[in-house]
Amino acid sequence: MLDLLGRLAHQARWWLIGASAVFLVAAGAWGANAFDDLAGGGFTYAASESSRAADTERERLGRNDADVVVLFHSDRWTVADPAYRDAARAVLDRLPPARIEGVVDYWRTGESTLVGTDQRATFAAVQVAGATENDRLTNFLAIKEQLTSPDLDVSVGGPLAVFDDVNTQSRTDLIRAEALAVPVLFLLLILIFRNLLAALLPVLVGVLAIVGSLAGLRLLAQFTDISIFAVNVVTLLGLGLAVDYSLFMVSRFREELGTGQTVPQALRRTMVTAGRTIVVSAVTVALALASLAVFPQVFLRSVAIGGVAAVLLAGFFSLTAMAAMLALLGPRLKERRRCTAAAPDPDAGAWARIARTVMRRPVLVATSVVVLLVLLGLPFLRISYGWLDTRVLPASAESRQVQVALEESFPDSVTRATDAIVTLAGPVGEPAGQQQLAGYLERVTAVPGVGRADVTGAEGDTARITIRSDVEPISAEGRELVDAVRAVEPPPGGTVLVGGDAAGFADLMDMLAERLPWMALLVIATTFVLLFFAFGSLVLPVKAILMNILSLTAAFGAVVWIFQDGHLADLFRFTSTGNIDVVQPILIFAVAFGLSMDYEVFLLSRIREQYDLTGDNTEAVAIGLQRSGRIITSAALLLVVVIVSFATSSVLVVKIIGVGLAIAVIVDATIVRALLMPATMRLLGDLNWWLPGPLRPLYRRWGIRENG
After folding, report:
1. Which keywords are on file for this protein (predicted)?
2. Pick from 79, 77, 92, 162: which is nearest to 125 by CA?
């Protein structure tokens, strides 16, 4: 199949290049507005009790949450001054009724909790009209510019303002990351290839992957919710893997040309060797990312769908557009070597010497590397899980500044409440309903940790009970309090749904604990099967999986040390929350596991190719590492450049993922591939290639053989 594709790429090269150009224009035009169709948040899920509580509350009692918080402050007046009132009301009263559902402020309610401790600040809670989050965002953007006053300082916060800030910041960060990454990639490729045309090709394929990823996200957003937080991650994967795969293709093509083959022969040989490696790698990475779909969260599902699309696009363009350009440029891509008295021995290069040195002391090297990686991973044992808040944004973001002001000046208004939505057997207003509700209130108030519980809304047979506590909601104590409240006996014949931040976090943790083993099993099982068919061994897949887990441990430890403990906060410019968002390690695991397998497949492919020729395991490892080590480290360097450019993001979610992935790739491409891989290959010897007799026909029939 790949041999046929190689012939087609040569014969129809102009058609493929033309089709790629058309795709670039069309996808660029469509994907340019991808951010407009994406959803915010995506960290809860509809089936949880907290989400069902919120839905029931909205349907029966109306929305009780503030979409926008308008913070007023004056250096001249106090809130009690009529001039202050008139200036603030002038701002709120001119909001168009068609775009808002309601406004709660101090002058309408007389609530003292809406006045700051210095008596010069107050805030209004605005509910924005709209059936969906995107509808409400549209209405918010339409009124945002009206939230100004010539007499008062006005700042805007709240969920919609946070989403707008994240949207704006993500778009800015994406443009900056691309502007940083692409020129640096091009310069490094020139140094790697010492050929301008060869260096240009991976960049062109990377641009195709970026444009295709954004267009794909926008297309997917027409059918399902796609989280805006997924954009940078998906674009990172598309660009990084496109450059990696293109590097594999160009390097192998130049190698084949160097043996004296014609362009058609070199291209076909490249497709059945490097092309097969790309296919195996792309499928492996895609399967690792697809495992995220076992989680019902929009955010993880978005990364799963978008990530799979980006990886497949990267592989597709590498095998089509890249192959066509190789056919077109042909001999102009040849590596120019200096004339020497004798050709260098390909088996005696630096990488081969490293491999042979390691394999002379395999026990010492393997033990040292394992101990080092375990030590680096120790901080992960004390990880503290949390949830996202406004601190994902830079300190300069207005919505974050509003939240800080609320916490400092309005301590009684910052909600830490848990809401119990109680549905009775009869109307709340009847004596029987009131008695049942009073009995439930009494039982809830008696729960240890509950400060007070009040009925804050009632309609028909449904009531909202707001439960207040001093317990931090996003904490182990908060989860225990939610469990205790949920254990309270509901009114006879009635039902209770417990919601709020603490309940949402508890539901999220329970769901992740339930589905994480299935995700891990899916990743490990699919990787094992794919590597078995790629290399015809039962031992190599197990060893590859164990080494990947070991290198990921070091990356997780570094993430905890940097972001949870706050080390290097000034260098990376972030505010430590004292915990790690619970979904970040899962996302890093899926992406980094796939990327690590990328290099594993490439290296093992060259080793297997040599082993099939000689049957000598030790020499196959040395020569395989010699012929792939430079490409792997170059590919890792280029990928790290892409990742680090995205790690400069001001959005903490993207920054954590970027830094975690960069560390994982560096550890994997250096310590693991150059030291642990040859050491373990030497220790296992011919056992590396062990395949039971009953499975040999299966491998002969369906095996993905590198040498065709």
Report:
1. Cell membrane, Membrane, Transmembrane, Transmembrane helix
2. 92
50/530 Cα distance (integer angstroms): 39
| Interval 407-437: pLDDT, tens | 888 876 655 578 899 998 888 888 888 888 8
pLDDT(73) > 90: yes
Task: Report yes or no: 58 and 52 within 8 Å, Cβ to Cβ.
Answer: no
The Cα-based distances of 186 to 180, 201, 315, 336, 409 in angstroms read: 11, 9, 20, 19, 51
**Can you give the pTM of this predicted structure?**
0.84
Q: Residue 71: in which H helix or E strand, if any?
A: strand 68-73
Give tens-digit pLDDT for 17-49: 999 999 999 998 998 887 777 776 666 777 889
How many CB atoms are located within 10 Å of the residue 697 CB?
Answer: 9
Question: Which of helix, strand or coil describes residue 17?
Answer: helix
CB 555 within 8 A of CB 544: no
Q: Which amino acid is present at 668?
A: D
pLDDT in tens, 599-609: 888 888 888 88
How far is the C-alpha of 317 from the C-alpha of 206, rounded, in Å?
9
Token code pair at residue 194? 């010492």
Cβ partners under 8 Å of residue 97, min gap 6: none
Instruction: Answer whether 291's CB lies under 8 Å from 22's CB.
Output: no
